Amino acid sequence: MNHETLGKLMDRWSSDAVFRAAVRSDPLGAIANTGLQLSDEEMAAVQAVDWTLSDQELAARTSHAA
Amino acid sequence: MDVPSSPLTLEARLSLVLAAMQATLDANLSVGPYRELSARLVTGVARQAGSAAERLGWMPFINLPFDVTAAAGGNPALAVPLSAASAFVFSGLDVIDDIADGDCQPQWEGVPQAQQTLAGISAMVSFPQLLIASLPLPPAQIAAMLALLARRMLQAGAGQQLDLALVGAEQPDPDTVVASVAGKSGEQLALYCEWAALAAGAGTETVAAWGDYGRALGIAAQIQSDMSELCHDAWCRDLASGNRTLPIAYHLQKAGPARIGFLALLAQARTDLEAQRVVRRTLFDSGAIRMAALVAQLYVERGRRALQRAGAREPGLSRLTALLDGPDKKRMDPTPSNSLATPAATPGLTVEAAFNLQERTKA
Asked: In angstroms, what separates the C-alpha of B350 from chain A's closest C-alpha?
């Protein structure tokens, strides 16, 4: 796993509202436009995450049945 | 032991496994204080797995040996001793982890810590080996399974040591945090899967793929469990203990000049509920929670690919896939007619929830 690449992705997510909106509508396209190189596994993970959820909703979903 | 060919309920699996554990104690220890001490291991497994069965429908040391055996085309009768050996490994690691964390489960109340340690060591270095050595398999397979146990226990120990070293760390490296999780949780689940694959006669590459599945599942589950506790438990025990879980490590790495203030907040959060709330809010705002969720998802994908490489098939494949899938899909019991497995009785059986329960039943 490449923490540096994912870290850059999350830095952009945290600081750029336009990027967040783009990721919510087209995660792979928006990330491809950043120039970040993700592995197949990383791309699959990006696709599997529901980016329309807020961070709180995402965490709640993670712990849905906890 | 006769095992029906049809899928067993989780309760039935658990009963068989507990019986096999007890039979191992009875066959190898004479009546006396040491057997009584060791029997507490079985009590602990029964307590934790029983609670998990009721609330969640699965526990790794039960489901993985049974379901990997099924998915790898192994002999169903071997799933019971494999699961019993796995349960002893689990119980031993759990005892050592509890001692490290200062936790004490009910079965150990009144037992001196040195004796708990003794029981935990026995659980890891005696009973699993006796069970594995008694399997009706060629000597080369037995030898490979015992060697694997030794290697995985070393890796689990290394993970535990990393975890202890990370407590209160000011600059925890996210890679080190993941390595700790991989050692503590990943290697344990990898072992359960690899044992079942080896017993099924799988080749080297296939066994490795099964190990990758278990490892990925264990890492994803532990990260999700840590996130769940951090985000949703009113009192976060990880924050109280000074543990550096993945979101905290990410935030500290990116915090820049704010790092000193956040470290002070973390120190306060060990005893202060309001400080814990501020930590949580800060981690949400910085994207650290989402980052950790993404990393957990990465391991889910890794586990999915490992299942493909392992050539996993039904029966078993769908249940193992469900462990990796979203919370709403994780219904683990093989028999839908079982009351434990009905959606109404067990909504959203999650791997992370199982790990959470494992932690909570210690309280």
From this structure: 6
| Pairwise CB contact (< 8 Å): A7 & B327 | no
Shortest alpha-carbon distance between residue B348 and chain A (Å): 5
The pLDDT value given to residue B57:
63
Rounded to two decimals, the ipTM of the complex is: 0.85
Residue A55 Cα distances to A10, B199, B287, B288, angstroms: 12, 43, 8, 9
**What residues of B are in contact with residue A62 (Cβ under 8 Å)?**
224, 227-228, 231, 293, 296, 327, 352
CB within 8 Å: A1 and B350 = no
- Mean pLDDT over B251-259 rounds to 90
Mean pLDDT value of segment B119-125: 91
Distance in Å, alpha carbon of B230 to nearest chain A alpha carbon: 9
CB contact under 8 A, A62 and B295: no
The whole-number pLDDT of residue B142 equals 97
In the predicted model, what is the mean pLDDT of residues B259-275? 95
Pick from B145, B151, B146, B156: which is nearest to B120 by CA?
B156
Cis peptide before B138 (omega within 30 of 0): no
Record: contact B232-A10, CB cut-off 8 A = no
At B90, list the tokens.
């689990």
